[in-house]
Each structure stands twice: as structure tokens, then as C-alpha cells.
Amino acid sequence: MADLLIDWKKAENVRLVEGKPLVFHCHHYNCHLQKTIEDSRIVDGKGIQLTAAREVAFEHFTKAFANHSELKEPKERLAFAENFFRLAGFGLVDFSKVSKNGGFVTCPSSHYAKGWVVKWGKRKTPMCFFNAGWIAGVLAAAYDGQRFTYDVQETMCEAVTGKGCTFQVGVR
Ligand SMILES: [Zn+2]
Fold it and tell me: Quick check: is 68 in a domain?
């Protein structure tokens, strides 16, 4: 398993992971931000969060896989991404049931879903828009695709069922 490249630019007080700035936020921040965006009646909150996560993950992991030329196979790249997700505090993600042509990705533990339930209780609809976008961006980078190659929809959510999250992955 390749180690993450982690650096801290002391003069600027910026943490770099794989050459990109990375900020760690708690569930209070992340879930309040999501609720604020989602509750808006004038913007597409789900779309904003999903698209932003996909853009950032695609750029970040394209750079990470360039940094780690030893990760040649998508399976190795996705194992690296699973480790990143866990270390960044986003929870657990499992890419074992997805291929270049789509499939399913699961999150047995989701930072966003757990945080939401702790703050406001269960909800009626899936809410891990960040995870869906992040998965789409990572898959595109891992399979040398384009940033919009994959369409990811959450079909089951821990914040609804209490039993982990499942994402259906399709190719556009
Ligand atoms: Zn979820």
C-alpha cells in the first residue's frame, strides 16, 4: 500500500495531502453546511455538493495517481482511495463491487450520515451527496476517464436505514 504524501507549509499554515490543500472539518460544520445548502429554495443544493465533490476528487486523485506511478492497476488505485477516505475521516468505502463499466459502491460507515443522525435524527431520503460525488471523481481518475464519465446515485443511506450506504454507479 502506497503511503499518502502529507506535507505542511508552515509559513502559510496549509496542510497538503498529495500536493493539494486539505482541511478537516467535524460533523457539526459539514452537516450544518449541507443542511444550509439543501434547505435553500433558490439553488440546487444536492447538485452543488455532488458536483463540487466530484470536481475536487477527480483533480485530487488524478494528481495522486500521477504522484504514485507504482499504482498502475485500477484495483490498486481504488485500494489507495479507500485508505484515503478512511484517513480523511469520511468513513469506510468499498470499491470491490464496481468495474470500469459500473456497478455498486458501498460505504459501511459514512461520516455525513452518522453526523446527520447524531444532530437531527434519521431522515426519509438519502443524503450522502459528498460521497456520491467523491466516488464519481475517484472512479474517473482510477480508470483514466473524464471527470463526467460516471453517474453515481445513492440508493440506500445510513441516515435512512441505519445500515450503511449503497451507491449505484453508471457510465454516462
Ligand atoms: Zn448515505
Answer: yes
The count of domains in the chain is 1
Q: What is the CATH classification number for the domain harbouring 166?
A: 3.30.1380.20
Residue 5 burial class via C-beta count within 10 angstroms: exposed 0-12, middle 13-18, buried 19 and up: middle
Q: How far apart are CA 26 and CA 24, in angstroms?
A: 7
- pLDDT tens for 110-134 read 999 999 999 999 999 999 999 999 9
Q: 109 CA distance to ligand 1 centroid (A)?
A: 8
Name the residue range of residue 120's domain. 27-171
Are 162 and 122 contacting, i.e. CB atoms less than 8 angstroms apart?
yes
pTM listed for this prediction: 0.94
Asked whether residue 79 is domain-assigned, the answer is yes
49 Cα: distance to centroid of ligand 1 (angstroms)? 14
Query: Taking 80 as the threshold, does the pLDDT of residue 1 lie above it?
Result: no
63 domain residue, yes or no: yes
Neighbours of ion ligand 1 (CB under 5 A): 110, 113, 128, 157-158, 165
- 21, part of any domain: no
Are the CB atoms for 101 and 95 separated by under 8 Å? no
Query: Which of 72-88 are b and which e, b meaning 16 or more Cβ less than 10 Å from the residue's Cβ?
Result: eebebbbbbbbebbeee
